[in-house]
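[step 3/7] fold_predict: job queued, chain A
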Amino acid sequence: MITVRKLKLTVIGTDEERKQGYKFIRDSQYAQYQGLNLAMGILSSAYLESNRDIKSDIFKNAQKSLTNSNPLFEGIAFGTGIDTKSSITQRVKKDFKTSLKNGLAKGERTITNYKRNYPLMTRGRDLKFMYEGDDILIKWVNKIIFKVVLGATKRKENSIELQHTLHKVIDKEYKVMQSSLCFDKNNNLILNLTLDIPYTPKKNFVEGRVLGVDLGIKYPAYVCLNDDTYKREHLGSIDDFMKVREQMQQRARNLQQALKLTKGGKGRTKKTQALNRLKDKERNWAKTYNHQLSKKIVDFAIKHQCEFINMEKLTKDGFGDKLLRNWSYYELQNMVEYKAERVGITVRYIDPAYTSQTCCICGHIDKDNRQTQEKFKCTECGFELNADHNASINIARSEKFIK
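[step 4/7] structure written:
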């Protein structure tokens, strides 16, 4: 399914970089306007010269001549890095064909004339979406970087839905197609983002089947079915977090040590900015990881036709900071919730009390049941199992729901 979303953008950088960025867009837009009308002129002239016969050699040769190497494009200052020539030739041929279909041959429609403010076409692969802290940025050609202004939407629910859409773009669940840039009547920069959203047929769920999700330390997520406990999987690893954390903490310590030795001035300012960028980078990595992990959880539920996903109700702070600063289980749960909702799976939250201390076989509760981080052995019936696996079974089967 092809859909278009309008995004309000702002060029980021120094005042001079922003000024040059906007100028580049306007200049590129003007160059495209020139090229579009010249290219349409070639087709329309050949069409009239051939007495409106699109099967004539004159018209066919004119169509064949519309390539990137056509001399008509010489002297036009197209924007660096934008594949404007190809976009122009494809657009003009498509528009002329549409005009013919809509009555051009009968005189019911005139030749297309492109206005100066015609949106600047850009390839989908030139728009690279990413996180920067809580912001969503887009790297474009000519080293221009945009920030998506999410606050531009009038209704809060629209803003949230837009964020979810962009998360799927970053996750590469949605493919970015050829899009366009333009300025609205208030001189705001607008991206007409064209997306190819894959069609997801409605799943046939197994009635009553639940996926239990245990969020833990060694494995960020351990999942298991309520009615077939052999269907389980651990997702992610503490090693992923620790590797990144140690690297970033070492860099932070080096910067903090350098700050102590710098009294003030530009040197201290630059080092402080570098430290802040490092914190944003860590947060950015954690957010991206959460998206990847939440997608795997929902994909597992889809694969095994689950009707529900059960998770423990955690506080907003959670206990993720033990793994990585600013890494949040609460954020992960929110991502699982909206991704599951989109495919028709209901997420339910349960009381987290005693899920790790309860035996999934006999129901005996004892803090001594969990002997180590990984080992669970019931002091009542002697049942042994991986501790996270046991907890995920209890979560999947729990009916202590919290709204």
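[step 5/7] annotate
The CA atoms of residues 120 and 181 lie 5 Å apart.
The chain has eight helices and 16 strands.
exit 0
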